Amino acid sequence: MKKSLLKTFAFVALAAISASAFAKTNPKAATYKTHEVADKSAPLVYFIREITPEALVKVYKATGYEASGKVGVKVSTGESENSNYLRPALIKNLVKDELNATIVECNTAYGGGRSNNIDHMKIARDHGFLDVANGFDLQDSEGYMTLSVKGGVRIKENYVGSHFKNYDTYLILSHFKGHAMAGFGGAIKNLSIGFASGMSVEKSGKVQIHSGGTKTKGSIWGSQEPFLEAMAEAAKSVCDYMQGGKGIVCVNVMNRISVDCDCDANPAEPDMHDIGILASLDPVALDQACVDLIYTAKDGGSVVERIESRNGLHTLEHAEKIGFGSRNYRLVEIK
Questions:
Q1: Is the entire prediction scored with pTM above 0.70?
Q2: CATH code, 146
C-alpha cells in the first residue's frame, strides 16, 4: 500500500474519533446531584437537543411567552471571528422572522473592539448581525439610565444604557459557556453585564458590577465574591424593571462550550460536546439547568474546573437568596 494512502487512512481514523475522547474527563459526573425536581411549583425549563434555527424557534415557543410591542433581543456580538458568539444564521429565524426584533447591545469596559460606538457598530456589521434583525441598537450610545436594585447588598443602583427603556419586551439570547472571571456566562451575565453601560459613559454599570459596587469608572477589577453578588443583583434589577420579569424570556444555547467567554478574542477551543438549547421564564433556573448539564457531562471537566476555580456557583446561590429566582426547576425535553 502506498504511503500516501496509509496517511489518508490514518487521518480518517483520527478524525472519526469523537472530540470528547480528547476532552478533560469530569470526575463529578457520576455523583453530582442536579437541581431538577418533581415539585409542580418549580419553574419550567425547556430543553431541545438539536441546535438549529428551527429548534431555536421551537424551544422559544414552548415557553408560551409571546413577545409584544417593541422587542429587543440581547445577544453578544462577539469580540472577534475567533470567538464563539451565536452566529447570525442560527438566530435569524427567531429574531427577524418570528419576532421582527431589534438586536441590542452595550459597549464594553475593558477596551477591545467594542468599547466605543463606531468600532462596536463595525463589529456588529462585520459579524452579520445587522442583516438578521429589525435594526441594531447600542443602548448606551447616548448615555445611561438608572435602575433601582431591590434587596441588593453590593449595589443599590444599576446603570444600563439609556435606550433600555425604549423596549416593551426582551428576549435574552445567550451563548452558555465558561468565563474567565465569572466562571460561567449565561442568562444572568447577559442580563447584568450585558445591559450595563460601558466605559464610554459617565457611570459605567460594567465597572460597578465587576468592582462589586465600589466604583463606576476605572479598572474593572475587584474582589471575586462581591463581583458575583453584584452581577446577580444587577440582573434582578433588570427583570424587576421589566414588569417583575414578565417582560423577559430567556434562551441559552449550549454549543461550542469553551472555558472562555465570547468577549475573549482568542478563546480556548471547546473540548466538550454540544448539548442543546434551553429556555425558561426564570433566568436563575435556566442557568442552573445549564450548569447541571455541564456537571453531569462526562467530558465537562474543563468547564467544571473553570466554574469552581472562580466560585461561579455563588452567583446562583446569591440570586436565589435575594429572591431573584429558583435554583430548583422542572426540565421538559422537547423532541
A1: yes
A2: 3.40.50
| 6 falls within a domain | no
Looking at the structure of the chain, the number of domains it has is 1
Query: What does the pLDDT look like over 294-307, one tens digit per residue?
Result: 999 999 999 999 99
Place of cell 502506498: 2
Query: Does a structural domain hold residue 260?
Result: yes
